[in-house]
Amino acid sequence: MIISPDNIVLWQWGQFSLNATIVFTWLVMALLTLTSWLVTRNLKSTTEISQWQNLLEVLVTGIHDQIRQLSHQEPGRFLPFVGSLFLYIAMANLLNVIPGYMAPTGSLSTTTALAICVFVAVPLFGITREGPLNYLKHYIRPTWLMLPFNLIGEVSRTLALAVRLYGNIMSGTVIVAILLSLTPYFFPVVMQLLGLLTGMIQAYIFAVLAMVYIASATTAHEASQDIKKETESKPDN
Amino acid sequence: MAIDWITVSAQIINFLILVWLLKRFLYKPVIRAMNKRKQTIAERLNQAREREREAKQKIQLYQVKAGKLKNARDRILDDAKLEAAKQKKQLLELARAELHEKLDLWQRQVVEEKQEFMTSLRARASENIQAIARKALHDLADAELENQVVNTFIKQLKTVDKKTRKSLSEASEPLTIASAFELSASLRDRLSNAINEHLCPGIEVNYTESPELLCGIELSRGGHRLSWNLVNYLDELNNNIEQAFSSIAPAREEA
To answer: Which domain covers residue B12, as residue numbers?
Structure first.
């Protein structure tokens, strides 16, 4: 039984192989980009707008507000990254209802790639906000003894991020495959519906966790700076 | 559960491309459109507030104008009422004067008609009385009216005072007897005898007819006159009728 789209190789050229994960990712990308382009080429600033524009505005506003609530910061910087994570995973999981389609998120390679993106994005957002030195000091707080634990925490949460999404989506695919062989009619449909729900929840969880990590990397520094300012002002009293 | 690192790197690139594409085609245009709409709505709200402020100013302006108009209307209305009262008074006075004038005219006409009526009544009464008296005398006493008139006149001649008798007898003019009816020869003789006997002895008497004497008889000489006719009776009748009219007139005025 094929449980990962990585194993479906569609085209091979030397060491490079074009597998189903990449092809379905391109499909999802094309679908998202094409829909966005089709709708946003005729955007209106008036109060009368099309249903599609309304849908996109609701989506963007929803992500925008979620980021604001989680980070307590202006969401403009994080929106493209976090929003794309959510939309990509959600769309990849949503298309799972199409027969023959295999969600790219069911591949550990994809989820690892996304987790690496988050792993890199967290310090990047922190560094662009505070500078490299201030950000790196975060790892030796409250004392340098915590450095290994902080590093382990960074790696483990990235690993957890990747494995959580992969496990959930892969398990859904596997369960449907197993049930199809046992009871081919009713249960696979129910499990498929459950898979849709799980897929959407996982997309939300992935995006939210990514945002939480980024927010903790940026607000932690702000909080420490606030504490520093307070301690500097205390001796005067 | 193997990780294909080539796929991982490809997926990282794919995701970064997707981030760029969505930023280019989704987030930026949508947020720009929403911001523009927000700005448009804010501008419209400002315009609406501005218009509301202008509208309030206009309302105040119109309220002031309405107040002024109301005052002007009240003033014009008061003036019109005063003018109307004045005109009413003038018209009433005019109507009253006209009424008085018409009343005077009417009263004059009534007086004239009354006079005409009385004159006509007098003429008709004279004729009728004359006819009735004649008929009554004839029916009751088998006597002629002319005879009775002459008898009455002769009785009157007998009772003439001295002064009148003297002035009549001393006058140089001829003595004339005028009567409303034609006197017969016997009556003329009786009259002539009575005049010669009681007034002027031996005088010649001329006889004429004069219908306006109203069934009477008149003796005249040199501006002196003696007569008997129905004028006195008719005057009494006139007086009675006028009294009857005057008793009706106040009752009408009271009504």
So the answer is: 1-32
Specify the DSSP element, H or E, that contains B206.
strand B205-209
> Whole-angstrom distance between the N-terminal and C-terminal Cα of chain A?
72
Answer whether residue B169 is part of any domain. yes
Question: Is residue B78 in some structural domain?
Answer: no
pLDDT bin (cut points 50, 70, 90) of residue A237 is: very low
Q: Which domain CATH number covers B234?
A: 3.30.2320
Of residues A17, A61, A113, nearest to B12 (C-beta)? A113
Overall number of domains in chain B:
2
Q: Considering only residues 25 to 84 of chain B, which have any Cβ-Cβ distance to chain A shorter than 8 Å?
A: 25-27, 29-34, 36-37, 40-41
Is A45 near chain B, with CB under 8 Å?
yes
On whether residue B15 sits in a domain, the answer given is yes
Q: Are B191 and B205 contacting, i.e. CB atoms less than 8 angstroms apart?
A: yes
DSSP A99: T
Q: Which residues of B touch A48 (CB under 8 A)?
A: none
Question: What does the pLDDT average to over B175-204?
Answer: 84
| Residue B119 resides in a domain | no
The minimum CA-CA distance between A148 and chain B, rounded to whole Å, is 26
C-beta of residue B216 within 8 angstroms of C-beta of residue B227:
yes
